[in-house]
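Sample A.
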Amino acid sequence: MTDKPQVDFIEVLKDAGVPTTQEEVSQQFDDIVKAEGLITNTSKMSPFWRLVTTIVTTPVMWLIQALAGTVMANMFLATASGKMLRLIAWGVNITPKPASAAEGVIRFTKEDARAVVTVPAGTVVQTERINGVVYALATVADATIESGQQSALIAVKAAGAGGAYNLAPGYYRILPVAVGGIIRAENEDDWLTVPGADEEPDDELRERARNQFNLVGNYHTDAVYRSMIAGVVGLSTERVFFLHDAPRGPGTANAYLLLDTGVTSQPFIDAVNDYINTQGHHGHGDDMQCFAMPETRHDLSVRVFVANPDNLNAEEQAALLGGIDDLIRCAFRENGTYDVKKTWPYARFSFSNLGREIHRAFPVVDSLRFSLDDIVSQLSVPRLASLQVGLEHD
């Protein structure tokens, strides 16, 4: 996607000859008064004239600011926001996506495979604290693990709406309230069946609406497929990537999907493919298949130096290293709790920039040493194979 144009509408008005400053409006008013000859005492020392000038120019300045900052900005898709952006999107048949809760499955493991164990509805499985927040899932119905089964996958739903709950495998593993007969609960690979999503932000809605202008036909264009795929909760137009090199022969193409947080699971991919191919939302003769974005795996170790390590007690050191660990994992799309630059396909992931973000979030950090150089991606997204964060002493 191309960068959104930045327009200074005050400059646009100024270029059109509209007075845009208090001085220019006052001078324009003075010229009109002198031309009409209605008031003779226009001295700056006159209280009456100062009052009249203020009464006239203040509303004019308010109207100019409202015209530039609200009316003109909301006339165009590139600069509209809020309710006005939603009105423009409605005009091209786009409805903003609401916030939704993540759904998936958690594997519950029994202490004794011979026992019959029932996991009650509402059983909570949560994460450790991530940047001050604990994320939780709850089972949606009573589920019984029969005798002879060591474990079972049980359906769960996030305790709240939002994409932050789309965490990578292994994050959900704490049972705050023990369940009799259960020794472990954890989210595994492909646990996420329906990604959670925040209410669609203006920038993503703007890109979906902009994509509508490319729909020159009902089928056979990237824009059509991009529009259909991005209409699914949890995806946006900028996270759909196409491969047109006939991967399965002439007339075939692939679409690779990327979640902002967490891993795109196979059940979710299957649901998108079912929508496009089985439910008939594809071109005549098209062979379009969706896949999770290919991944490259990287082992990363980080050495953290602080100015006065002896000033940090054991608990503070653990909190610092845990926070840095969470931030780095956020950059590699395992969680969404920090505002950091994330890994992308067809991009360079800069460790110097990651270092700046760690310094900004944790001012006590004096220096950092990363074991890897920048990662340059093609049609793939960098992920962590392993991460070690250690505190070093000079």
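Sample B.
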Amino acid sequence: MQRRVLLAAATLPLLSGARAQGTPGPTVFAAASLTDAMRALAEAWRGQGRPAPRFSFAASSALARQMEQGAPADLFASADEPWMDYVQQRGLIVEATRRSVLANRLVLVAPADSRLAPLEITAQTDLLALAGEGGRIATGDPSNVPVGQYARAALGWMGQWERVAPRLARADNVRSALLLVERGEAPLGIVYATDAAASRGVKTLGTFPAGSHPPITYPFALARRAEGDATARDFLAFLTGEAAAPVYRRFGFAVPAP
């Protein structure tokens, strides 16, 4: 039952925005961790009298594969560089528009009512001991979901991948992993700092050292199918421009200097 609920939550298309009077807004395929920031930016965009964008939020891997199969995305915002590389190598984006404008951190979380105290994460931190006997650690599926791939790198840096891998609760995206911890179905989770900050149901125990995993960056690009779409180009410029930076920071993202 738990697996069916997880799959249902992960595969439901999270579409927001509607067609404006006349011209439809751009369709944006965005990493699940961008949900809150993107929705806030969409409201600001609509406030300028522009057509409402439509969003599909999921794991970057799932979105990239949907694009490969012909899904009608106008913009793609990935939670890692490799999945943007994937669509670029297949000619699905306009390469000249690709920009990495955000950064994030990887954190260890527990349910809000957990008795575990905050700690400094080092290579010696025993995650299985923290999870308790039989306790699982929720994160994205390391085989394809970016947060899970960052988690795998961090666990490898700690020398704990082989021990921890059998005890992972592998979710289809970061928000599904977060939900498992919120519900108490997993005593620990490895998620992005921004998702942890957005949840009242978890608390952050510690941050994985930056050197324990590849940098968590978010590349944005215009889809090839929208190359001649002025509205899509304008919205991409808005999402990657100076006006959007304060919104991203409000949701906990780092916005590197140009």
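B remarks: The chain has eleven helices and ten strands. Confidence is low (pLDDT under 50) at residues 1-21.
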